[in-house]
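Thought: the user wants the 3D structure for the chain below. I'll pass the sequence to the structure tool as-is, report back what it returns, then summarize two notable features.
Action: structure_tool
Action Input:
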Amino acid sequence: MLNEKNLPKYFWAEAIATVVYIMNRTPTTTIHRTLEEKFTCKKPDVSHLRMFGCIAYVHVPNEKRSKLDPKAEKCIFIGYSLEQKGYGCFNSSTRKLQVNRDVVFDEMVSWYPPLKIAENGEARNGDVPSNVEQKSQLINGP
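Observation:
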């Protein structure tokens, strides 16, 4: 999961905890039920599961912001909380992990863009080489 989303290796503990959380809520072939269902005798709700490493916008409460401050912080979704109901999100600007329930997810976008290998063998981010200029196109009407 870390390699798929190009996340740093220091998130390995959160990745393992997320894998265990998801595996406990998926059916096994030996008992034909989930481990959560066997333990609690009820089917687990999986509607809250989200894509690991996607961008999460965490709501900032009114008490913690002024009038012109943004209402959400851009974070990385890195797991689920076991102590309380909420999502674990890492804010890269403050370098803090926070658990929040008021989160909007953008599951189609990763925090780090995929690495591309250049012709000289160097890894770089993005799709456009640094020596190529972007040119605007003029659209002529009829």
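Final Answer: Structure generated. The chain has two helices and seven strands. The chain has one domain: 9-113.
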